[in-house]
């Protein structure tokens, strides 16, 4: 009787450990896949801007998504579309590139950091260049909930 109970206990315990191990492997694969998807959103952000595809670019954002940038935030799809169209009005020749592999972590949403370089010429052909960092919060639907652009400003020598 005692040995049967022991075998049963052993059986139940091994089932539990196999199952929980499967579950945690599944979750970590899931997290890795989620991080990859979050980075793909940031890469698409750069690609759509370069293609001057404001419709696809805006669709990367949540309906109430916000882009914090100068001079003031762009809020919601309507505000974001105006921001995107404004870029090409101001800077007919514009490109945006990620200069390093984006960094990603997950904590209440996926959070991505990317280093970027913007190159452009203004309407008079004057060249402009700016480097900086973008930070993104990607929601559960893999939409951008908010993003913030930071400019590199050289320290005075
Ligand atoms: C991966 O993303 C899905 C969809 O947002 C979410 O339901 C799931 O909890 C995420 N998994 C992990 C481990 O973060």
TrEMBL record:
What is the name of the protein in this document?
Integration host factor subunit alpha
One Pfam family linked to the record: SnoaL_2
Q: Which domain of life is it from?
A: Eukaryota
Where is the secretion signal located? 1-21
What is the species of this protein?
Answer: Acrasis kona
Q: What keywords are annotated for this sequence in UniProt? A: Signal
PROSITE patterns reported for this sequence: PROKAR_LIPOPROTEIN
Boundaries of every SnoaL-like domain copy: 42-138
User: Transmembrane ranges?
Assistant: none
């Amino acid at each position: 009787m005692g040995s049967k109970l022991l075998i049963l206990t052993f059986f139940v315990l091994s089932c539990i450990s196999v199952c929980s191990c499967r579950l945690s492997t599944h979750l970590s694969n899931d997290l890795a896949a989620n991080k990859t998807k979050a980075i793909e959103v940031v890469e698409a952000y750069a690609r759509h801007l370069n293609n001057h595809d404001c419709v696809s670019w805006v669709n990367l954002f949540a309906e109430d998504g916000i882009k914090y940038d100068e001079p003031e935030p762009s809020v919601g799809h309507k505000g974001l579309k105006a921001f995107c169209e404004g870029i090409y009005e101001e800077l007919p020749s514009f490109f945006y590139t990620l200069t390093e592999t984006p960094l990603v972590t997950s904590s209440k949403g996926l959070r991505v950091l990317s280093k970027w370089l913007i190159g452009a010429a203004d309407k008079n052909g004057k060249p402009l260049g700016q480097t900086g960092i973008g930070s993104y919060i990607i929601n559960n639907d893999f939409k951008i909930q908010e993003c913030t652009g930071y400019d590199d400003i050289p320290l005075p020598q």
